[in-house]
Amino acid sequence: MLDDNFNKKQVPRPRTIPSKIKQHLSLNLHIMPQTGSSHFQKWLFLAFLLFALLVIMAILIFW
What we know:
mainly alpha; 87% helix; 0% strand; rod-shaped
């Protein structure tokens, strides 16, 4: 009789919330490095263009 009550208390809980959280976190971990690297590449490219423009202006002014 004690075993029956003990087994009834161990009803598995629905795991919808933890699975959604895990799926959301894994999705973020999968996407964030890609967007982070593309964001970094965009700013690196813009900085390179600005640097090239400044070099060209310096050559034209001081040549």
